[in-house]
Design a protein that fits this description.
The protein has 474 residues and is mainly beta. The chain is built from no helices and 28 strands. The strands form six sheets. Strands 22, 23, 24, 25, 26, 27 and 28 form a seven-stranded antiparallel β-sheet that branches. A five-stranded antiparallel β-sheet has the order 1-5-4-3-2, with no helix packed on it. The structure holds beta-L-arabinofuranose. Beta-L-arabinofuranose binds next to strand 2 and strand 15.
Length: 474
């Protein structure tokens, strides 16, 4: 692959972050009003967000001009809304250019945006991290300096393309790297410090750049760009997406094949996510009008797994996937209305009946169909459902109440079930989301139980509340 495309482009600093929400495309590329690259999908509640850099290179130039990161969102993976730039070079006071690939990872009610950015100090690219209270920010520099730089011991030849993953046990990992140099490190629970040494993962055959990590059915997956001509691309100026699997988050990895073949841009950068029960790959190409290697555009297509967990090669389409609006919690019947609710505390002027009265909140401030709140209690509170006979349950969805006064979105939550003698966490549960204005869907291995409990931990100084809590029969 030509190194020419890696030449850094000096660029001015943008100080204002545009805040817009504009409907865009329902076809590939998903946005053609600007050029976008290096997409990173994230599902929060019933919404898929895509974080992408913006390509601003004029026609005919052969360097990246990238100064800001944009956000798009969709509730059906087909129709997209553009939310404008939500971070840019000026977000990181210590940096000066090259807003390259990024990824957002949620934790403890916050959203950590890991970015590739050119620092002003020695060396070239660094990994920075910004933080915000919602998927759309606002985002501010979380650390005041690079998380990874050229002076980090055993860092990559090119410190770009972070992918961050939080395992079920709460341990976070970051992978990154370019120039055939993948690297990995543990992150502290604050998500902005590394723990232990940077390691060089093994088994990522022909790794070039752009790692993307996820977990499915207990197996770890790493997708990454490769540029070999042995089954990947016809010309090593281009790249494909290979993938490997492991039974341990730090490997060793076993190479499994090609997920996404060559695209129309030289670079190939992608992310994989499950949304409303289906799997998607989000990637970039040069297919927008006037597009090119430095004027790329984001596309979305379906991704399919085989029964043995291997991934089928992706079919790139111009239509994009059909709308998948989901069911507000997946398939199955919401059995919450037939349960008897109880709680550790309900405010005298609010109502526990709110949580299972079948309301459809318009937003987290919506009081039109009763609200449950536990003010003035703080710390950990709970709400609970009980059925007269055991039910098999494998999904839940909670819509939080936030009155912008004493009741705020929670810091964290956990779903538990009664195993006959005590409450224990439901097995294999996905992240218990704390986002406002959405159904926060929790999936888990089916449990057969008469009682389900949602344990809610408040943010310091606040109480918590719920507008609707659903439980789905498997
Ligand atoms: O967009 C700049 C760089 O190109 C990214 O960091 C790489 O992954 C490649 O897509």
């Amino acid at each position: 692959m030509s190194l020419r495309r890696w030449v850094a482009t000096a660029c001015g600093v943008i100080t204002a972050v545009a805040v817009t929400a504009v409907p865009v495309h329902a076809a590939n590329p998903i946005i053609t009003t600007i050029y976008t690259a290096d997409p990173a999908p994230l599902v929060v509640g019933n919404t898929m967000y895509v974080y992408a850099g913006r390509d601003e290179a004029p026609t005919g130039t052969s360097n990246f001009v990238m100064r800001e990161w944009h956000v798009l969102s969709s509730t059906d993976a087909a129709n997209w809304t553009h939310h404008g730039a939500r971070a840019n070079i000026a977000t990181f006071g210590w940096a000066g250019a090259d807003a390259w690939a990024s990824e957002v990872e949620p934790r403890n009610g916050k959203y950590y945006w890991y970015t590739s950015i050119n620092g002003n100090g020695p060396g070239w690219m660094n990994i920075g991290v910004a933080v915000g209270d919602s998927p759309l920010g606002p985002f501010t520099d979380a650390k005041g300096g690079p998380l990874i730089s050229d002076s980090t011991p055993n860092s990559s030849g090119l410190n770009i393309d972070p992918t961050v993953f939080v395992d079920d046990d709460g341990q976070a990992y970051m992978y990154w790297g370019g120039y055939w140099g993948p690297r990995a490190v543990r992150l502290a629970s604050n998500m902005i410090d590394t723990v232990g040494s940077v390691v060089t993962p093994t088994g990522l055959t022909n790794f070039w750049e752009a790692p993307w990590m996820f977990k499915r059915n207990g197996l770890y997956y790493m997708m990454y760009a490769a540029n070999d001509t042995s089954g990947c691309v016809t010309n090593s100026n281009y790249a494909c997406q290979r993938y490997a699997t492991a039974t341990n988050p730090l490997g060793p990895w076993t190479h499994r094949g090609v997920v996404l073949g060559q695209v129309s841009s030289t670079t190939n950068h992608a992310g994989i996510v499950e949304f409303n029960g289906q799997w998607y790959i989000v990637y970039h190409n040069a297919n927008a009008p006037g597009g090119g290697n430095f004027r790329r555009s984001v596309a979305v297509d379906r991704l399919y797994f085989n029964a043995d967990g291997t991934i089928q090669p992706v079919t790139q389409t111009t239509t994009g996937p059909p709308p998948n609006p989901g069911t507000g919690g997946g398939s199955g019947t919401n059995i919450a209305p037939s349960a008897t609710a109880s709680t550790s505390h309900v405010s005298a002027w609010e109502s526990l009946a709110a949580i299972n009265n079948g309301g459809t909140p318009a937003n987290s401030q919506d009081r039109s169909n009763l609200v449950y709140g536990n003010w003035p209690q703080q710390g950990t509170q709970w709400i609970e459902y009980q059925w007269p006979a055991a039910r098999s349950i494998n999904r839940s969805a909670v819509y939080w109440f936030d009155d912008n006064q004493g009741i705020d979105l929670p810091a964290s939550c956990q779903l538990q079930y009664w195993n006959g003698s005590q409450y224990v966490p439901v097995p294999g549960q996905s992240t218990c989301g704390t986002a406002g204005n959405v159904d926060n869907v929790i999936t888990f291995n089916p449990v057969n139980t008469t009682r389900l409990r949602l344990q809610i931990t408040s943010r310091s100084g606040y109480s918590t509340g719920v507008l609707e809590w659903k439980a789905f029969q498997s």
